[in-house]
Amino acid sequence: MDDQVQISKTERVMAAPGMIEGRTRRTDRAEAAQGTAVIEEDRPFWPAVRRGFLRRCPHCGEGRLFDGYLKVNDSCPACGEVLKHHRADDGPAYLTILVVGHIMAFVMHFVWVQFRPEPLVFATLLTVFSVGLSLWLLPRFKGAIVGIQWSRRMHGFGGHRD
Ligand SMILES: [Zn+2]
C-alpha cells in the first residue's frame, strides 16, 4: 500500500506493520510496528482555509459554515462533518483589527496627503470604510481559523477530548 491511500473520514483501519508511510497522522513508527497505528484521512491545509474563508464547510466546501453572521453550525448541513469543536475565540477579531488597522493607516496617510479632505468628511469616510471592511472580514477570518483548526485536528477535531 502506498501513500496515495484514501480512507473515508469515519473509517479507521488498524495498520499493518509498514503502513505508516505518507499521509498517516498521529501515528509513529512504534505504533505501526505493533500494528496499532490509526490511519486518518488527510486534511489538506490550504483548501480548508480557503473554504473557511468563503464561509463554507472546510471538509466539503458546500455546506454553509455559519448559522447567521458568526455562529458556527454544529455540523455541516451538506456533509454532516461535526464543526462544533472549533475554538476560534478572539482570533478572528485580532486578525481583523490587524489587517484593517494596517490598511487604514496607509489609506489615511495617502488620502490626507493627496486630497486634504474636510476633517469631518475624512473622519466619516474612514469610519464607514473601517466598519464596513471589519464586518466583511470578521466572519471570513473566523471561517479560515475554523478551517485551520479542522485541518490540523486541533481541539476536538482530532476525535480526542480537548
Ligand atoms: Zn461539509
- Helix-strand pattern, N to C? EHEHHH
Strand sequence of the main sheet, in spatial order?
A: 1-2
Regions with little confidence, pLDDT below 50 for 5+ residues: 1-25
The number of distinct helices, counting runs of at least 4 residues, comes to 4
* Total number of distinct structural domains: 2
The ligands found in this model are: zinc ion
Structural category:
mainly alpha
Report strand %.
Answer: under 5%
Oligomer: single chain
Q: What report would you give on this structure?
A:
There is one protein chain. It is built from four helices and two strands. It is an all-alpha fold and 162 residues long. It has two domains: 42 residues, no CATH class; 116 residues, no CATH class. It has a two-stranded antiparallel ribbon with strand order 1-2. The site of zinc ion has 9 residues, from loops.
Q: Briefly, what is this?
A:
The chain folds into 2 domains: about 1-40, no CATH class; about 45-160, no CATH class. Helices cover about 45% and strands about 0% of the residues.
Write the layout of secondary structure elements.
Layout lengths: L12 E2 L14 H6 L3 E2 L5 H9 L37 H25 L3 H33 L11
Antiparallel strand pairs: 1-2
Helix pairs in contact: 2-4, 3-4
Bound molecules: zinc ion.
